[in-house]
Amino acid sequence: MVDRPKLLLSDLPLQAQPALSRILDANLDRAREGLRIVEEWCRFGLNSSELATECKQLRQEIAKWHTPELRAFRDTLGDVGTELSHPQEETRANIGQLLQANLCRVQEALRVLEEYGKLYLAEMGSAFKQMRYRAYVLETNLLGYQRQQKLLQSSLYLVTSASENLFAVVEAALEGGLTLVQYRDKTANDDVRFEVAGKLCKLCHHYEALFIVNDRVDLALAVDADGVHLGQQDMPIATARQLLGPHRIIGRSTTNPAEMQRAIAEGADYIGVGPVFATPTKAEKAATGLEYVRYAAQNANLPWFAIGGIDPSNLNDVLSAGADRIAVVRAIMQAEQPTLVTQYFISQLTRVQTLRNYRSHLPQSHA
Fold first, then answer.
1. Could you give the C-alpha distances from 329 to 91, 183, 184, 308, in angstroms and in order?
2. Per-residue DSSP letters for 49-97?
3. Has 75 been labeled as part of a binding site?
4. What is the spatial distance between Cα 80 and Cα 59, in angstroms, rounded to a whole number?
5. Would you say the pTM of this structure is higher than 0.90?
6. Of 189, 194, 213, 227, which one has the fewest beta carbons inside 10 Å?
7. pLDDT-based confidence at 1, cuts 50/70/90?
8. Is 25 known as a binding-site position?
């Protein structure tokens, strides 16, 4: 926190003083406006008091520098920049783009204030340097929070397989409401994987869905994926966390209670439970059956997805065993109508989640 500064421009040529004041005034406005837009989403969209409070505190600290002396130099009618625009500023495809644009706006404004502020008052440069770092942290925390919230809300998880119609199938599923996609290809060359993963990542983010890369932390980082899914033979979760940072998602495959408990203890964000039924995707692994699903329903304290040979014909058995999230491969990747299959899965999972949530709020004698 700082006291409101006094105007100290005496060392500048007279003709430079109005320009400097207008630069500072414009960027103080820009930073405050951008933060308010982000704050509103943190408050009303995410219901996060912590993130909303940080936005508000940062906005108020910036406001202390916005003195009447600086405002006095404002010349909106004479500002040539009011007529400048760019096509990208005219539309926002989704909340993610809106937040990213305004966070960038805040950070750019803070950088301008940091540099020009050094000509206004010595301590202004250092003050806005610290605020700029706080804006970077805010962006990271906000992105991480949104990923975790999206993960919690996702009941259906599509794991891709090689297909000539890969992009069309994934987009059809996204149109059906899918919000979580994993890119899995064990045989393609790295240059192909990089190209495909990059396109899938952009496609998923266009639909505000999470994009996860199977096994490859380096590939996940290269295409700015939301996280990585690790098998039992892949690197430790702690190592992946060091490479990915604290705000990306890490999942782990598990086939028995011991692997589940270890994944939880190591800090996985979610786990796969299976393969429930025999599947050619995991031909080397014996089916775990529904008993492991029942164990997960009683003991898992993080999001978990039943996986392995699940399709519309056996979905009810999996749900009856306690699952309310599933991961599928062939059921969607080989479907004639991926959108309809996706909608069917999500409707059934939503029905079960709603019913269980209702029962959990009943008095014990009625549950």
1. 35, 11, 10, 8
2. HHHHHHHHHHHHHHHTT--HHHHTT--STT-GGGG---HHHH--SSHHH
3. no
4. 26
5. no
6. 189
7. very low
8. no
